[in-house]
Amino acid sequence: MQRSPYDTATALLPLVGGPANVTSVAHCMTRLRLSVADRERVDTEAVRAVPGVLGLVADGDTLQVVIGPGAVVAVTAEFETLLGTAGTTHRAPGQPAPGGPRSADSAGLAVRGAELKAARARRNATPLKTALRRIADVFVPLIPALIGCGVLAGFNGLLVNAGWLPWLTPALAAIASGFMALISVFVGYNTAKVFGGTPVLGGAVAAIVVYPGVAKVTAFGVALSPGQGGVLGALAAALLAVGVERWCRGRVPDALDVLLTPTVTVLVAGLATLYGLMYAAGVVSTAIGTAANWLLATTGPLAGLVLGGLFLPLVMLGLHQALIPIHTTLIQQQGYTVLLPLLAMAGAGQVGAALAVYARLRDDTSIRTTIRSALPAGLLGVGEPLIYGVSLPLGRPFLTACAGGAAGGAFVGFFAVLGDRVGATAIGPSGWALFPLLTGNRGPALAAAVYAGGLLTGYAVGFLATYVSFDGGVPSDPSPRRSG
Q1: Are 440 and 448 in contact (CB under 8 A)?
Q2: Residues with catalytic annotation?
Q3: What is the dihedral of CA 178, 181, 182, 184, to 10 degrees?
Q4: Which of 42, 61, 353, 456 is within CB 3.0–4.6 Å of 397 for a Cys-Cys bond?
């Protein structure tokens, strides 16, 4: 019987320290994101054991509870409701954590996974990685709109190519393209919100980037183009606006603050955007698109091998967040990002490795049960349960999963050298969930076929590499595991 979102939220709230310990609530595609005042009050093992929870990533005072696509939206809504009326959901002393007892083997993996995540959190506590997480916080809320508009754009493309419903396709094109035309405004709004400024001022300055009237402005001897610099220009403009606003707040008298601070912020940041940031961001954006296309056209298999093979370690280090603005820039420029399908191959290698562990440990019912529970999510691109519950604690399967991802990436990259680029019209989903968002320079059908071939390659290599090399042992555990 499937657990309701209310039951999941009710079980989670006391385990994260109750409403007084929760300082903010948000969600992305698959995770409930909580900021807590006191990390010591969080029962991490009990959170992982809650039915409906696929995993937990704890990073400092931020908790990312992996729930899965779709379900996370409903659970977040129930959780926010409970925060307003909570007080009756705490566990009684001695009451067992939800989810029932766990076997010694799967519990040992859970402990090992928790230790690895704690170590990763300590490594990630650097200014650079904190900045990357904040940049990710700017773009993650935009992902649902990117997905919705991406799916509609792909569907409309199919209708146009087939010559069907010509009376409907202009309307669908407008619906699918409206958000992308104004995405810079949303980026500016979120940037100011995340970095401590007034959101609407960030949005107002970023709106300059897409305003048609900028075509009348000349910077560095060249007339500007509406949209020049894209999301990177909007991000830079909003960051500057936050800095100007903070400078004004500390110097303008309170009586004049409401008048002068917004005016100075928009004026200074706006002029800097027109006469510097848009031009510079345009150069960078163009270079990103050119570099991505050149990389795949000339070194496709090698590029795919490196990107597919290193993506899981990048996720472990938190460095994958630096790719979000790059994906968004490519989507804004070309209509799709050619990098995401390559990176998604890491999930295929992870699935193949998990299946090999399942085949190897025929007598270990606890780990096989964990894999059976996490595998559907892994196939749909939610890899955390398999990573933190199986491959990373076991050690070697994590490396062989990377090998599978490298092989899948090389497969997709090989077709890029042949001129068949595969791209995704939105970011967020991967695995099988990415199929509705696939497109390319030669149409969605060929793109889907190449991507499917990459997935199968990743599954196969991840499975074979793991099956051959994994002997059933667990790092730091002197007693060997049973293997078949």
Answers
A1: no
A2: 28
A3: 150
A4: 353
Name the 3-class secondary structure at 232. Answer: helix
Residue 241 to residue 237: CA distance in whole angstroms = 6
Q: How many residues does the chain have?
A: 484
**What digits encode the pLDDT tens for the residues 113-144?**
555 555 555 555 567 777 878 888 898 888 88
409 and 304 Cβ atoms separated by less than 8 Å: yes
**Domains of the chain in sequence order:** 5-101 (3.30.1360.60), 138-284 (no CATH), 306-469 (no CATH)
Q: Span 278-300, mean pLDDT?
A: 92
Whole-angstrom Cα distance, residue 280 to residue 282? 5
**β-bridge pairing 62-66 and 31-36:** antiparallel
- Please report the DSSP string for 192-207 in residue order: HHHTTS-HHHHHHHHH
pLDDT in tens, 51-93: 888 778 777 778 888 887 777 888 888 888 888 754 333 333 3
User: Shortest CA distance to 370 belongs to which of 384, 335, 244?
Assistant: 384
